[in-house]
Specification:
This protein is of the alpha/beta class. It is about 40% helix and about 15% strand. The chain contains 11 helices and 11 strands. The chain binds adenosine-5'-triphosphate. Its main location: cytoplasm.
C-alpha cells in the first residue's frame, strides 16, 4: 500500500516540465507517461524537455498532451532523448536555466535520471528556488534512499538471458567464460544476475579480486571433475578493461577463459512488467508530491512502498551493496 500525500487546496503552479537525463534506462518512457497523465488529470500543463539539461539550457521543449505519451509504455530508451551536459555544472548556467523556466511560467521540474542528474536538480532548487522532484532512473540501482530504480529489473533480466545462452556454449566446449556486466562502483547487477544465472563465481567492486585464488579454484574443480565449464560474472568496475586484464592474468596462471562483455545490450530493450509498474507509480507519485507542496525530494521505494527521500540525502550518502545479499551470494557461489 502506498501512503498518498494530502493534496494542497491551491496549487502553486499550473505548468511543470519533465526531462530524462544521464544514461537511458528501460522504464523511462512509462515514467514520462505516468507524470504526464497524472499531471493532466490535475489540470496541470506539462512541457517535455528534449535531451536533459542540454535541452533545458537551449530552451528546447514543447507541451505534451495525453496522446503524446500513447503507445510508449512498452518502448525502451526515452522518447524525450537524453544527454550528459557538462555546462549544467556551472551555477551561472543553472541560473539561466531557471530564468528559461520562469519565462515560460513553468512552476516545477521533474527529473528522471541517475545520481548525477539528481545532483543537478538539487542544485537548481537550492540556488534558484525552482521546485524539483527526482525520479531514480538508472539500471545500476546505486542510488541512496531507494531499494529499486527504474531499469534495474529489466537490465538484470536482459543480462540473464544472454548468460543463459553463453552457458550453452560454455558447457558444450567445456570452457569458462568471464561475463562482464555493468556496474562501475556497484556490484548490484552482478550479484543479482550471478545468483539468477547460477554463476560459479561473482566478482564485484566491493570485494578485492584474488587472481591466484580464482585460478586454483578453477584448477581444483576441474581436477575433481566438477568444473569443466562455468560462468564467472564480473562487474565492470571503475577502470575500463578489467575483465580482459583478468582473463590475461588467468591465462598467465594456466587457465584459458573466454571473455564476453555485455556492454550496452543491458541498457536497451522493452521494460519488464516490474519496471513498467514501478515507473508508472513513481511518475504518478512525483506529481502527487508536487501537488502536495513537496520539493527537493526524490521518489523512492522502501519496504515495497513509495516514499519521499530528501535529495540532499540522496546526494550526500552512498548506497552500499546489501551485505546480506552479498553474504547469501557468497554462500552459494564463490
Ligand atoms: P547514470 O547513472 O546513467 O550515469 P547519471 O544521471 O548519474 O546517470 P551523469 O552523467 O552523472 O549521469 O549526470 C547526468 C547529467 O546531470 C550531467 O551531464 C549534468 O548535466 C548533470 N550533473 C551531474 N553532476 C552534476 C553536478 N555536480 N552539478 C550539476 N549538474 C550535474
Amino acid at each position: 500500500m502506498y501512503t498518498l500525500p494530502e493534496l494542497k487546496q491551491d496549487k502553486d503552479f499550473d505548468s511543470i516540465a519533465i526531462m530524462t537525463s544521464g544514461g537511458d534506462a528501460p522504464g523511462m518512457n512509462p515514467a514520462i507517461r505516468g507524470v504526464v497523465r497524472a499531471a493532466l488529470s490535475q489540470g496541470i500543463k506539462v512541457y517535455g524537455i528534449q535531451r536533459g539539461y542540454s535541452g533545458l539550457i537551449a530552451d528546447d521543449m514543447s507541451t505534451l498532451q495525453s496522446g503524446s505519451v500513447s503507445n510508449i509504455v512498452q518502448r525502451g530508451g526515452t522518447v524525450l532523448k537524453t544527454d550528459r551536459c557538462t555546462a549544467f555544472k556551472d551555477p551561472a548556467v543553472r541560473a539561466a536555466a531557471a530564468e528559461i523556466l520562469r519565462r515560460r511560467g513553468i512552476g516545477a521540474l521533474v527529473v528522471i535520471g541517475g545520481d548525477g542528474s539528481l545532483t543537478g536538480a538539487h542544485l537548481l532548487q537550492q540556488e534558484t528556488g525552482i521546485p524539483v522532484i527526482g525520479i531514480p532512473g538508472t539500471i545500476d540501482n546505486d542510488i541512496f534512499g531507494t531499494e529499486d530504480t527504474i531499469g534495474f529489473d529489466t537490465a538484470v533480466n536482459t543480462a540473464l538471458e544472454a548468460i543463459d545462452r553463453i552457458r550453452d556454449t560454455a558447457t558444450s566446449h567445456e570452457r569458462h567464460f568471464l561475463v562482464e556486466v555493468m556496474g562501475r562502483a556497484s556490484g548490484s547487477i552482478a550479484i543479482n544476475v550471478g545468483m539468477a544465472a547460477g554463476a560459479e563465481m561473482i566478482l564485484v567492486p566491493e570485494r578485492a579480486i584474488d587472481v591466484a585464488a580464482i585460478s586454483s579454484e578453477l584448477a581444483a574443480s576441474r581436477r575433481a571433475g566438477t568444473g569443466s565449464s562455468g560462468i564467472i560474472v564480473v562487474a565492470e568496475g571503475p577502470t575500463p578493461g578489467l575483465t580482459s586484464r583478468l582473463a590475461e592474468q588467468l591465462r598467465e596462471q594456466g587457465q584459458d577463459p573466454r571473455v564476453c562483455i555485455l556492454g550496452h545490450i543491458q541498457r536497451g530493450g522493452s521494460p519488464s512488467g516490474h519496471d513498467r509498474v514501478l515507473a508508472t507509480c513513481m511518475g504518478a507519485m512525483a506529481v502527487r508530491y508536487l501537488c502536495a507542496g513537496y520539493s527537493d525530494i526524490m521518489v523512492g521505494v522502501r519496504d515495497g512502498s513509495i516514499i519521499d527521500v530528501p535529495l540532499d540525502d540522496v546526494i550526500r550518502f552512498r548506497k552500499g551493496l546489501d551485505p546480506s545479499l552479498l553474504d547469501m551470494a557468497l554462500q552459494v557461489h564463490r
